[in-house]
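General statements about sequence and structure are easier to judge against a single worked case. Part of our work consisted of pairing the sequence of a single chain with a tokenised description of its backbone. The amino acid sequence and the backbone structure tokens for this protein are reproduced below.

***
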Amino acid sequence: MPADEPTIVATSGGIIEGRRIRFEFSALTDYAVDLAGVSGRAPRVCFLATAQGDNPAAVFNLLSAAQERGFNASHVSLVPMPNVEDIAAQLLSSDVVWVGGGSVAALLALWRLHEVDAAMAAAWRAGVVLTGVSAGSICWHVGGTTDSYGPSLRPVTDGLGFVPYSNGVHYDSEPERRPLFHRLIAQRTIPPGYATDDGVGVVYRGTSFAGAIAENQSGGAYFVDNGTDGVATEVPLDVVRLV
């Protein structure tokens, strides 16, 4: 069942340490699934661990977490070869697409190689809710900050650009994130954009920001603009607490 308009929930959360299994999905993922409007059956959620090189352990952990949550789960892997014949059809048959963290640079390269970028765009336009964490948040934007290239953060500027903003993830837990995000926006290396502390997400309906949500009581979300005189400006956003 599609959402009533193209919808993205871009987060620095949605998955937590599990009690009996490696990971469990948390309130941000539940929120994204709720936006799909499914009733009378289990929501169909398709998982991608491209940013971790389709590590079998990562895929297993995601599918185990999905089973624990009662999702009707599928996954798309690209390495060593695509695991489904028609990636676009797989995504379009889903209610939600959930993308894991890791290397956003590798994710973007592999998606373009296998035309997943076009398939994701078709799914997004059709109302399949797109969500994810970290790399699975940055990818929908024009760019952001990433450790894809090494321990020191660098810009990524070739995101899918479904929304015309940049994205800063793990804003409160990794000290380099905030100053680099400010600097890149002030220098116009990336466009103005939205940043999220751990456990926080931002929602887009169409290409417009629709709100910030959190699965904790402390995390914030922020809009960072170019500012003046080479200094970016940061505005805290109202955050709806899901828990």
